[in-house]
Amino acid sequence: MPGQNQLRIIGGRWRRRWLRFTAIAELRPTPDAVRETLFNWLQFSVEGTRCLDLFAGSGALGLEAVSRGARQAVLVERSQVVVRSLLANVDRLQAGSVVRVIHAEAQRFLAGKPEPFDLVFLDPPFKSMLAERVCRQLDSGGWLTDGALIYLETDSHCSLGELPSNWRPLRAGVAGAVCYRLLRYEAAALAGDD
């Protein structure tokens, strides 16, 4: 039964399963319609990937990816209260073998030893101004496989600075206060092979 602090996985093996999350001021789950659009864009690109959900919050993006065939997801969240909700959802889905929850601040996590990911979800708190900085850390830190897909969600009124030059825009949309983009990381562009 849906409640105020619940959302539903849209597709895959956990389709129609409900996730519960703790309501805190900065937690703003990606709207269902936006998630549905995103995973329609990704429908042939999720299977077998390693995913990073860097501002995990409710965990909806990373858990949706695993539901649709991603082989592994790492959910990074700075709030201990929210981490407890994430761990409860991972336990409820019996996903502990494929989903790892890390209690850390995003920039501090990215300052650690890189693990390359094929699919990255970036949905920082809207007023945090972290999007551009985190994109640069991902780009320069060895966190992305060649051809990795990056989903970036920001405030539709936010002026996003310059993204790394080797991140190719693929799709974009706006839904209410949310602006969302899908980009591809191209390592070859770094070597000047455009």
From TrEMBL:
Any one GO molecular-function label of the UniProt entry: nucleic acid binding
A Pfam family that the UniProt record links to this protein: Cons_hypoth95
Methyltransferase in keyword set: yes
Keyword Methyltransferase among record annotations: yes
Enzyme class: transferase
EC number(s) on file: 2.1.1.171
Gene3D superfamilies in alphabetical order: Vaccinia Virus protein VP39 (3.40.50.150)
Swiss-Prot/TrEMBL keywords: Methyltransferase, rRNA processing, S-adenosyl-L-methionine, Transferase
Catalytic activity: guanosine(966) in 16S rRNA + S-adenosyl-L-methionine = N(2)-methylguanosine(966) in 16S rRNA + S-adenosyl-L-homocysteine + H(+)
Ranges in a coiled coil: none
CDD domains: AdoMet_MTases
Function text: Specifically methylates the guanine in position 966 of 16S rRNA in the assembled 30S particle.
Protein family per UniProt: Belongs to the methyltransferase superfamily. RsmD family.
Name this polypeptide is given: Ribosomal RNA small subunit methyltransferase D
